[in-house]
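Handoff note, outgoing to incoming analyst
You'll be picking up this chain. Sequence as last confirmed:
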Amino acid sequence: MTPWIPERIPLWVPPVEGEALDSWIEAYARRLIVSGGEFSRFVGLPDADPRFMVRRLTDTEAHALARRTGLTPEALAAMTLDRFDGVIVAIAPDDRAMGRPPAWRHYGSRSRFCPACLADNHGRWPLSWRLPWSFACTRHNLLLRDYCPACGHPSPVSTLRRAGPAPPGVCLHAAETGRAIRCGYPLAESPTSALRPDRAVLTAQFAVNHEILGAPAAEEARTRGQELYVLARRALRGIRELPSTPPVVDAILDDCGGTLPALAVRDEASDAHNTAVGTAVAMISTDRSHPACDEVFAWLLSANRPRVRRSNYATRKIAEWLPAGPRVVSRMLSAADSELTFIARLRYGTATPAGWPDRGDEDVRHRASKLPAMIWPSWAFRLLPIGANAPVTGFRRACASLMLLPGTSWDYPQAASLLGNTSHKSNRRALDTAVASSGAESLVTILPALARALDRHPVPIDYDRRRSLFSPDSVHLDHNAYQALCRRHGWRMQTPVQIKRLHWHLARLLLGADPGAASRTPAGHLSFHYRLHPDLHELLRDQAAANLRAHGIDEPVSWEPPPDWITDPVLPPGPETINRSQLAQHAADGPEPAELGRLLGLDDARLLLAIETFGTTAPQPLQQRPPASGRRTPRQGALAPQSLQRLYQEQKLLQHQIAELAGCSSNTVRQALDEAGIQTRPRRPVGHLEKTISRAWLEKEYHHKGRSSPDIARELGVGKNDVMRLVNKWGIPRHPTGQSTNPFASLDTEISPAMHTVSRTKNCVQRLRHLTVISRHSTLQDAAAELGVTWSTLKYQLMRIEETAGFTIISTGRSRPLTITEDGRRFLDGATHLLSLLDNRSP
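Most recent structure output, in case you need it:
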């Protein structure tokens, strides 16, 4: 309220709570014993019309009313429909004409009324009566009226050309055209239906007041209003056209007087009576806690749009239900789940609460980057039907492609091509064959849930990048390391077929899927993987990690989504239910797949998926050959008798040290010593190592310096297990999980605290070498070109080093060259010195 000024009217008539502006103007005029038109002219608005002012005030109108009545412009605006514009009503911006509202055909240009409220408030009209969603009085439990019972027309709240004030609460409709004769019926005496407070109509009005009229967000109110409006109109059509109605609908009709009134052409079922019935039914159909919710919704599904010819297939009804919004459409499709095709059930998530398709093309590509071309082995284990007689690879490719469909508008061939599964027809045949007997229920419930989980969670592997980088022809295999492994185990040396298989399996590790697009594994690869020796398997994983490092990729070699990502639906049993120790024990004997599967109670397909998940294989044990009377080929190199005598007896090297020099095992060195007639030294007595070193020395080297146990063992001439035995015995803290050992600890040189912290991080030597290259260039792009990596990789590595060190080393910027800070220069000098010592250290 504004301060009292000379222009203000001496008499004050405050508005009642929630009153409409035109009702307040009319009440003010009655208090001054003038008409509404005379009041407008008195306050300085000779051409103003309260019927338009109640919709939206102009600045002139608001200023004049505020100056003459003392009501603030904000309070005046709150008495208009302006705040509901675009959400509940539609007001033209130029002439304030009322357009078609978003819901119902009650435009807001006239007001409904409650007879009891008019009696209590001496003819004052609340603003809410003008809103199409107001159909019941929650104060008196009465159905609102639209028309005067005497003249059959909606009563105006005020008129411009009335000769004087009229009694409050009477019908002001002109009884005769062109004459100032009003109906005059006392509206407070109008009959109307009494509503039971425990019935659905009043409950619906309370819900509408909260969810639409009082919603804090316009979009929230608009969405909920559209949802209820479409369902309410369908309910009204069903009541008039369907032969029967659910009992709860009959109770709503009974609460509103027994039947629906006849439809007026201009209203199209938008009077308070029809709005109350339709909204109450719509509220029940969307309230999942109501016992009749599903029954009412199923009844609404049977109410067809009139004069619309269409197929009865569920997805053809989407356009008809789309105005109600995605929640209603998703529920409609879920109700018709049994009628839908397999692809439609996946896309719309009808078997799960996955939701309406709301993912665009960019979302699909982002999800594809989190997916290998074949679904992960543990998830294939859960999804593959027992005893399925189909190519497992094709089934896995089809599942991965199908995971791009939930929540999107993509089709299966388009999704398969994005993952590189170009043989999508054969993959789909494999999937159809696999589910032919048991059905596809697990797929339509689990795949949409897993797809949504992928959208929500980060994934540590960019499979799209790997698909563009790696293939059997592009991966790098360290042939020297493979040759050394062959020599240690006495395997046949490299053959073209063997090398080709190694490259194929190395690419498979990096891609998380078979290279190529075939739905069948190439001949020989399946048995090769099943019989893979653990040491060869470890070599391949090390080589996969080396290939990632060569491209500047800091990712794990492999990864799978954890089962706890999905809590609904319940997942079928996965490989985690298998006793891994029992699997390893049985596999150690090298049985055939069928025999190993029988021992574990698994079919062949699930057995191979479990082996892939755990990394366990079943290599055949080597046949023990009888000892030969003598070697036909003399020992060469470090194992020659003269070399052995010099290394073992003169230089006092240990057997495992000679084995490292010769590239063989300690057993081979022991055999060579026996053949050369060299007597082996007696084993150290128990407790010898404890007497050689102290706990303080070991704690300093292992815990404080961060040296690895193999590094310390080499210095002491013992095995790393001996070192770790003392670490555990003396209670020295072990290296934390995820913390790397310090590669500079054995250089016997002082390093700064920052460098010590950085040295305990993963891949620190490679990152420090990259850092020294960055320091020689003016831009990250130039340094990346020299190293053959992306500049974003260098930026990431620089950021990680600086975060660990705790200060800026090299300042970067968009328009200025790279600048080394003072602290960074000292850090770089120390890194260069350490790397030089590391490179020059004797092997």
